[in-house]
Amino acid sequence: MNDVVIVGAGIIGMLTARELMAAGLSVTLLERRQPAKESSWAGGGILSPLYPWRYPDAVSELARMSQHAYPGLCEALAGETGIDPELEISGLLTSGLDDMAEAVRWAGRFDVQLEPVSAERAMQLEPQLGVALQDCVWMPGLGQVRNPRLTRALRASLDHAGAKMHVNRPALGWVMEAGRIRAVRTAGGDIEADAFVVASGAWTAGLLKDTGLSLPIQPVRGQMILFRGPPGLVRRITLHEGRYAIPRRDGRVLFGSTLEYTGFEKHTTREAFESLCQSAFSLLPTLKDLPIECHWAGLRPGSPDGVPVIGPHPELSNLYVCAGHFRNGVVLAPGSARLLADQLTGRQAAIDVAPYLPEVASVK
Fold it and tell me: Can you tell me the distance from the alpha carbon of 114 to that of 126, in angstroms, rounded to the nearest whole number?
């Protein structure tokens, strides 16, 4: 029998599997479609929350934990698999702040290098800017990963380590006995384990409903576009009026993102495409001359304040949740996986787990 079954093989599920296998446990992952083809693939890979000082401290704690882990993780995965996740320290330039003082205070509390910069300095940092950015801060130490490459490396690493992976096999429900989960139901039969982890992104709330746990996690659509350019044309991650440009190592530039409460509708729209192009060309006029390679949509696991749920079910002793990361799944993934594994294995956690636990009041 499996030690642990993880329902969901996105970046959260796969990193949790990596942590648990490092602790000596056998792990099976159950994925409704293909691994890491939902929000893990669709996001931008910026290794910081956008406007992080506007989140509860619990998000910053997990982000700091993850940021410290990423260099070693990417190096290890590249060595194990030959797939480079392309960790790049691009820096993050953020404009239009009316809460500059709060940003500076937050940076001091979390030991983040952050400096207010003038419009002239912003132009020096990113010469392709087409607008004079006002009320800016520059965080030079922040980076990005190429999330599709990162998740491919994770899949290859888990395969090599002996993790079992069931793809195109959605979880359909649970077999519950005496305050525990005995098995997860699938069309191909029940799968038993000693413990279960739900890391199913936007589908988490529906999957947990029959266990009596009601979580405010809902799908939130985000659309992005990808420009194909020469290396070095755009240099910095830039966040302006809620939208961001991310320059990749090979010259491609991601631009996003929309924030749409449309349920499980994942199709792209012409309206969003035109809005994204307008924002992109205003911020970085050079993008007008580049071909648009792709336009896609993904479903984020939205939560009210962006604080994910990480920990044991309040009433089912061997069922755990790691979900609700909203816009910060890639950002928070290493820390979240470690925190979940700490609780499942009984290890001492590096940070206080209380802000992330599923609340007893949520059980209905």
Answer: 17
Instruction: Give yes or no for residue 2 having a pLDDT over 90.
Output: no
Q: What is the DSSP string of 99-131?
A: -HHHHHHHHHHTT---EEE-HHHHHHH-TT-SS
Exposed e or buried b for every residue in 11-28, given b needs 16+ CB within 10 A? bbbbbbbbbbbebebbbb
Q: Is residue 266 scored above 50 in pLDDT?
A: yes
Among 298, 319, 297, 302, residue whose Cα is nearest residue 310: 319
Overall average pLDDT of the 75-80 stretch: 98
Which CATH number is correct for 92-140+218-302, 3.60.20.20, 1.10.10.60, 3.30.9.10, 3.90.1150.10?
3.30.9.10
pLDDT digit string (tens) for 3-22? 999 999 999 999 999 999 99
Q: Spell 82-96 as b/e; 16+ CB within 10 A means b.
A: ebbbbbbebbbbbbe
Q: What is the DSSP letter of 98?
A: S
